[in-house]
Amino acid sequence: RIADPAPVTEGSGGTTPVAFTVSLSHGSTQALTVAWQTVDGSATAPADYAAGSGTLTIPANATSASITRQVAGDALDEDAETFHVDLSAASAGTLVDNRGSATINDDDAPPALSIDGGGCTVLEGHSGSTPCVNTVRLSAPSGKAISFSVQTADSTAQAGTDYQALGASVRTIAAGATSLALPVQVNGDTLVEADEAFELRLNGVQNASPGSATALGVILNDDNPALIFANGLE
Q: Which of 22, 34, 197, 218 could cysteine-pair with 121, CB 3.0–4.6 Å?
């Protein structure tokens, strides 16, 4: 039979050994052999561990021997993962519990999430709409998908008139990615007015620590009163 090894902590780099013990119910006067092979579970080779296969020999009069594989360290925040070692083709006796499973525990802190640069700025234009793009960024890649709710709120700009509101909706940064663009459409007009702003708010962050969770979208007025009057628009 093969026993599950104690869980191993992956570490932030290098490798850490994990040993699977294969044991006999009692010793034999002859050496015994058994074939073995690693099998991916939620952990995959070679990213998480070193795959392998071969033949294990338990010497005569011994009752156990071990198969050692190396677990790869990384800096990704991720769930605990497992991989397996399967036994087959024993030279004598009967195989019992022919699969051993190793658990790799993660030891990395979740990344921080923030809105890049604190906000966006855009000229409103005279018609149509123009995107004001905020970028949400992670301080480091993650092995988990990062989700959060995003919603706009009026400051000096008014939703529907000056910009197109975003209702509360869940957005996701895929595992391994580090950023996501969040465009808000700004409505163009020919009104002479002060610069205006709206807020972009992030809530309910999952699998990351929230850093900067609010940003301003600044709408710059680009209407010239003299030009508007000359064109007969006012």
A: 218
pLDDT values of the chain reduced to their tens digit, one per residue, 234 residues: 999 999 999 999 999 999 999 999 988 899 999 999 999 999 999 999 999 999 999 999 999 999 999 999 999 999 999 999 999 999 988 899 999 999 999 999 999 998 876 689 999 999 999 999 999 999 999 999 999 999 999 999 999 999 999 988 999 999 999 999 999 999 999 999 999 999 999 999 999 998 778 899 999 998 776 544 445 544
Q: Which residues contact 218 (CB under 8 A, 6 or more apart)?
A: 119, 120, 121, 122, 132, 195, 196, 197
Q: Both tokens of residue 93? A: 């006796």
Query: pTM for the complete prediction?
Result: 0.79
